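hey m, so remember when u said the tokens were messed up on ur end? i reran from scratch. heres the input so u can diff it against urs
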Amino acid sequence: MNSLIAKNRSGITILLCFLTALFEGVDLQAAGVAAPHLIPLMKLNPAQAGQFFSASTLGLLIGAPVGGWLADRFGRKIMLITSIVIFGVFALATSLAGDFQSLVAVRLATGVGLGGALPNMIALASENTRAERRGLAVGLMYCGMPLGGALASLISLTGGADWKSIFYIGGGAPLLLAPVIALTLSESMRRLRVAGAPHPGLKAFLGALFGADRAVRTLLLWTGFGFTLLILYLLLNWLPSLLIGRGFSKPVAAMVQIAFNLGGVAGSIGVGWLIDGKQRGVVTIVSFALTIAFLTALAVMPAQPLIAIAIGGALGVGIMSNQAILYAIAPWCYPMSVRGAGIGAAVAVGRLGSLIGPLVAGQLVGSGHSASQVLLNVVPILVIGAAAALTLSFRLRGEAPH
């Protein structure tokens, strides 16, 4: 059994990380799925509803850097399992929350677990795969998140469903997966080779992020993550409302959201395969250029359902391709000893963008902007993220993770 696992280390690692990402994707959109039933049931006012939506994202800001840092000290596998158990237990606990305070507390704790899992999934998928296939490995892993989001959106179409069911799925499934990971997932081979080396302290960690020529690449990576995730979460939270504002029905808006997530699956896999080639810069240019084009098209398209679904799917391909590019090149930026913390810090900055994105849209809508104007006004934000990602991609030409 052990020899079989060792022989298929890369495939097993990608599969288990994909399943973890799938359940993360479900839980990241669980609040939105449950909200129409949960908010009136608990009599939440708009301010309380906003805190409910943002609690897990705030937890992600904490969990990502802490989970990555602890993984550099104690191992990627153990921290991935710990993070899965945390977000599984507290996702289930959400179904038991009886008041606003307990609801926010369990969502915050869920977010800590979700944040701790992500940098370790990226590191494990990259470090247990051959150098020439690391981008594809990360892309295959990451496509689980939009697929999980599509699953959550499908649940939202069943309007009579018990709001607790999404948390049963988002919490129970990871807890069943955790012992499978404990038995079959291998620790990062590259990390094992340096396991005997002393773990760098805070000063060395800051030096790895900002010393020598890494300050520029760190800032570019953070800018790329922050601005692209701002757009992604703006769309995840506001796309149905913006489409309804453009005259579409709720079922059509839900179908566009599903197409957006399924397009993201295709984008993650496709760009993961392409990013391993010699034309990384070209792939990055094309990915961001198409995203900008389809975001603009979504703002000016005629109010025809089939056109909206097609553009929504194409936009999902672009948006998730951009994210997959950043996740794939993030391990290139840092040495092995601080890679988990480095990726975790970048993920945390990205989550800060995901907190700001829905607020930006809310501010624009509240100030009287139409749905089309909101979409057009955020295009420059995506352009900034594209410029950062493209610059970083070209700076890293010819390099590979240590």
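this time it looks ok to me. The chain has 18 helices and no strands. if urs says something different then somethings off w ur setup not the seq
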